[in-house]
Amino acid sequence: MEKASRGTSVKIAVCLLVAVFAQTTLAGLAPEAISQWLAYVDWLLIIVVYVCLGRDPVQALVTAVAAGVLHDAFSRGPANGVMTAIGVSGFAYVLAAYAADRIVSVIVADNLLVRFATVASASLINTLTKVAFYKLLKFKLPVLIGGKGIAAAIVFGLVTNLIAATLLYIVLDRVFNKDSALKLRRSEARRGKVKF
Amino acid sequence: MSLTDKAKKNPTWLLGLLLVVHLFVISLNRVPGQPDLSYLQLVTMSGMMPFQWLASHSIGAVKNVWYGYADLRNARTENEDLKARRDQLEKEASELRGKVALAEQLGEFGKAAITYEGVIARVIGHDANQWFNTLYIDRGSLAGIEKDQPVVTADGLVGRVINTSPLAAQVLLITDERHGAGAVIAQTETTRWLGILEGKSQYLCDLRFIVPPEKLENGESVVTSGQDGLYPAGLLIGRVKSNGSVRAPVLVEIEPAAKLGKLELVKVLKVPPEQIRGPVDELKKEEQSKTADRKK
């Protein structure tokens, strides 16, 4: 059991590293038409939400903190004495992870609809939290000027994250052996070992 | 069993936790000599650099092979096109020779970028947040890159270095909203109207004129003035983007000359700091002498 949990942690760590790599590099390498959309995808958030689907709140929140640290390390270096945004991403990810965990703890089923709901709510909370903090910190970002920019960021973030998550979760299910774990739980339930 | 009992039985996890917490706290400290850079950024920038370098190079190699194949297929039609184009260019070249003579009389514009030594670097990554305009290059302090050095492409100014680690550096693009915080002074190329350059969005900047010009043409080139102590004079920033000519504008949009959305290779100019600071220091000296005279 402990071995399995350790293995999962390692897998999550690797996934986060791959996600931050994708977040900083992928949009620059893709053709222009795709890169505009790829820039909106928050790969780290998608990984955090996936961990939330495992119904382990501690693991989910720790993953969110790690994702925040990784994000901050690759974002917004300080310039001209203007402060950085260290901690904002972590805060947003933790909030999003908590919301996603609440959703999956209330809805027992694990299907595409539940996944859509968790990714959508997490994406929404993530964007709104970041926007709120950047406004508080008085960043002069174009996205913060007027409601249109914020609305566009929310909508584009939501759509691109949903599409990317749908595709990525197929791969992650195989990486984390989720299908076989689910089958095992079902067969045990049929035999009466586990009560849902 | 309480947490303390668990820790007593197997203290490894507690040790690991404490080490991680301490490492995190240490990583928030500033790097000596680089107060803007934390150890966390230094370690991660250096650690991720080989993977980003490998990815950008391998994808670049695959791209080259594919384009080479595609080029071969289109070679014949391209050859005929090129012949026609050569005739056209010969005609244009004679016209341009006349313009070159005129350009030489206009001054030292454009020479700055050519005369400085530089380090060619490959763009290996962008900011993790799509709202911030910074990027990472695969050359750092080991290649002689220092903070505040200008970064250019063949097309124009890209930005300046804000952080360096031994193997990588972070560049603040001219389109970042913080770019103007250092009061980057630019000027129109032909009429020399001075203005402060401010990053606006992912693809545009604003030029806020100190004294509004009487008239400004669409497409007018904007270059660095060298009076801000940040960039040397004569680096092409971009062109005025407006519908036709504008009368007495206070603020105009500037379209960067460098293709900031598709950067692959950039050049970090090794401009001596005293050369950049020169005009500012002279102004300060003048001001100091004036105030001293007034006191007398």
Question: Your description of this structure?
Answer:
The complex is a heterodimer of chains A (196) and B (296). Helix content of chain A is 77%, strand content 0%. With 196 residues, chain A is mostly helical. Chain B has six helices and 16 strands. In chain B, a hairpin with a 4-residue loop joins strand 5 (150-152) and strand 6 (157-164). The A-B interface holds A 20-21, 23-25, 27-29, 32, 35, 39-40, 44, 69-82, 85-86, 89, 130, 134, 139-143, 153 and B 24, 28, 36-38, 40-41, 44-45, 48, 51-52, 55-56, 59, 123-132, 134-136, 162-163, 170, 172, 176-179, 181-182, 200-202, 261-263.
Which structural class fits the helix and strand makeup of chain B? Answer: alpha+beta
**DSSP strand tally of chain A:** 0
Indicate the overall shape of chain B. Answer: globular
Strand content of chain A: under 5%
List the secondary-structure elements of chain B in sequence, H or E.
Answer: HHEEHHHEEEEEEEEEEEEEEH
Rg of chain A, Cα atoms, Å: 18 Å
How many individual helices of chain A?
8
User: What distance lies between the first and last C-alpha atoms of chain A, to the nearest angstrom?
Assistant: 20 Å
Mean pLDDT of chain A: 82
Q: Tally the helices of chain B.
A: 6
List keywords for this structure.
heterodimer; A: 196 residues; mainly alpha; B: 296 residues; alpha+beta; six-stranded antiparallel barrel; six-stranded antiparallel β-barrel; 6 helices; 16 strands; 26% strand; globular
